[in-house]
Structures are given as C-alpha cells and as structure tokens.
Sequence to fold (529 residues):
Amino acid sequence: MTRFRPDLSDEPAVRLDGVSLAYERTGEVLTEIDLVLRQGSFTFLTGPSGAGKSSLLKLMYLAHAPTRGAIRLFGRQTHELKRKQLAATRRRIGVVFQEFRLLNHLTAFENVALPLRVAGQKSDQYQNEVIDLLRWVGLGERVDAPTPSLSGGEQQRVAIARALINKPDLLIADEPTGNVDPEMGRKILRLFAELNKRVGTTILIATHDLELIREFDVPVLRLSDGLLVRDVEYGAAE
Amino acid sequence: MSRRESPLLPVADAREAALFFVIGALCFLAALAALTTRGTYKAAEAWGAQIEGDITVVMRDTDRRTAEQAADQAASLANVFEARVLSREEVEALLEPSLGPGGMPDGLPIPMLMAVQADMAVGDPSEDINQILEGLGIDGDVAGNAGYADNVRGALGVLRLVAMSIVALLSATAIAVIAFATHAALLARRDIVDVLHLSGAEDRYIAGLFERRFWILALQAGMGGAVAALMVTALIVFTGSGSQGVESQLLPRLSLDFWDIVILLVTPIVAGLAARMAARLTVLASLKDTL
Fold:
C-alpha cells in the first residue's frame, strides 16, 4: 500500500504566519514569527540560549499549539487537523530531540524501530531497514545494545536514526551535535546534507555551533528574544 | 526470522509493585466483605424462617394422652414438620425465668404445651390446629410468632441493608483507590507517553498499551486477593462447621457455594476493569493537554 501524498509542489513544507507562543510560567517566548521552509530546503536556526529555538521547533513538530497565528504543515492548517490527522502528520516529521528521548528499556534497534512499530508495522517488515540505518550512522555493531550502555554520542546517533527511519518529509533536529565531538558533529551534519540532497527531505537544524554552520552553504535564521531575523553574518542568502 | 519485540512499556517497577499490593489487599477485603454479607443474608433468612415457623399451642384442662393425640394429628398436617407435647421438665425450664429456679409448686396447674414447627412457605397451619383442638374437645390457644417474626424480619432487613452498604462502600473505595493508584503510576510514565505521542502514535494506541498493562496487573492482584479471601473463608467454614446452638445461628453462615465462587471470580475482573478504565482516562486526559 502506498501512502497518499498530495502534490505540494507549490506548497512550502512549513509556513508560519504571525505565530506567537506564550507559556503560563514564563510568558511570551516567541513573537509574531513569519517563516517559510520550502520543500527540500536545508536551514539552520541559531540564536543564544533562551532565545526560543526549542520552542519554535516544538511548534513545528506539533508538541505545542501556538498562542496566536497559524501554522501550515504540508499544505494543511494544523489547527484544523483532527487528532488522528495530527498523529499522521507527526509520522511525516522526524525529530531529533536535544535530550534524545530514547526509551531506556529498549535496545538501539527497538528505539529506532519505534515510529514504525507505532504505525502498526511488524518487525519482519522493518528489521533490515533498521539495521541498515544503524549501520549508516555507524552503529552496526551496537544494534542490540541496551540504550543505557550506549555513550552520549551513540545515543545521539540512535536518536538520529529514529528520526530518519520513517523517511520523513521534514526533519527537525534540536542541537543534534550538542553531545558529540566536533568530528562526529561534522559527520552528522554531512549525513543530514546528504539526506537532503539525495532524498529531498526538508531539514531544519537548531544549533549554536557557528563553526559547524560556517562549513555549510545554507540559509541561517537567527532567533533573538523570541523574534526571528535573517542571519547576515553566516550562511547563504535565500 | 523476525526479532522478538520488547514491550513498549518497561517492566513493572517498585511503584507498580506497590499498586499490585494495594489492589490485592483491597480485593481481599472486598471479596471477604461480600462473602460475609452473603453469609449474613443466609443466616438471617434461616433464622427468620425458623422463628416464623415456630408455633406454641397452649392446651388447658386436658390430660397428656389427649394432648399427644392432638400433637399426632397436627404432625400429620402437610405444612407441619414436627409437633410434640413438651414434658413437664421442659415447661418448667420455660417458666423458670418468670418463676425462679426453685421449681414449680406441686399444686400449680400447668397447661400442656405443644411445640409445632411449621413450614410457613406452604401455609400457616394455625387454623387447622385450632380445628384439631376443637375436634378433641381441648380448650386451647394457638400462639404463632408472626407478630414477633415481623419485628425480627424488620431488624434483619436493617442488618442486611447495613451489610450491603458496607460492601458497596468498600467496593467503591477499592475502585477509587485502584483508579487513583493507577493514575499515580501512570504519571510516572509520562515520558514514555510523550515519546510515543511525538513518534506519531495515535491516542488510542497509547491508551491501549497502558490499558493492557494495568488490566493484567489488576487482574493478577485481584486474583491474589480473591484467592486469599477464598482461603480465609475455607478456613472459617472448616473450623466453624462444628458450631452448634442458638448463637451459631446468629453468626454469618459462610459457605462456598456457586454464588460465593461467582463473587470470588468477579472480584478480580472488577478490579481489572477499574484499573483499565482509570488507565484509559488518565492517558487520554494527559494527551488532551497536548496538541
């Protein structure tokens, strides 16, 4: 069975119109964000700690609803989606969380397979795919390793493999190089760039690692005090 | 060959062990209370039926032989189990509370008393006994316990109501505690709910995982409680089977008949359903807070 995919050639993967987000405790963290991520684009999001990078990503991977404004994902207004449609939309988004969010009682293989499993697939359908992906991120020898036995860098790569296993249309990564050495960080970002180039996955990466960003000729957005600005010093102009 | 999949929820931890104990203990108490209430019901029924069926016939100015003829005729009635004339010693024993232990004065005229045990379910034999007395020319009165039995039945009704209320209250408390403990155990698993949710799992899928986990946990704990209640009841039935006398009739009649077994079987199922429902509502409520 083939998944139905509407023709979105004219639709951006992500579109935010006047989006603001306020938390009960801390007040407004994002203000009037307008943003378009074209399909197949590769974008960095940067800014100082507390600028609202993670909050902006959370809006995009549907962890929160905006306080004001509208979010359009893959051509659909998110606030119009029913809960089942929201779940289906989440399956089109791969997320690498800053804190990994791996399930400690599962192995590396089982963590990577999680999005397929919750979508109803059986292990014989996906096991080769999962193992191949784990090999691709350099964990071919750690397939059945329990999560707590993995190093920080290995856990990061398991989290990346989990985000990619569904062949997502949109990949969102929050500080994906935060827990690895610069060489591994570079390798991970190259891996994302390759994915973007070969498969056309739309990628948004939040990072404060400006040295790494400098190596990629892609647009960089900067968040500052909850406001989104184009970074003129780093990255390429759109 | 496909790989073995670990459960998406981790194995039970200390919180769930505590929940297991709480559910088991509550099921034990609830099952025991239900069995005791049934026993009380049965004792009340038996006691009430016995009191209602006791009829005393006072026969004045007649000899023992005529009185025994009346008793024989009464005993042949279809709704009479037993009819017999009381001996003088038995009558004296009955009158002792009124006349004291010194014995009856020799000259005191004592009426003959006939004790009749009737089957009131078939019908009240008082009228037939009156006719027997008339036929034998005996001046007598038939004194049934109907009025007294009504009072006893009223008291037993209150007793039943209290017992039922206790069972209902205990069951409601057990269900509420199970629901609350399940809710608390689930909140500790919030991180897993979030990961599954953001991985694209539907609400029903996530709720189903927790429902199954807590249904099995509560079912096992409930079975443990029910088995413990069964053992205690069996012990009481076994050790208490030799009790005799009036006082034993006032005690709950614990037994292990069909309906008692039904109670023991239903207890873990109710516990399981309560935990399952609590798990479902808790997960769905926590997901409702998310987008």
Remarks:
- The mean pLDDT of chain B is 82.
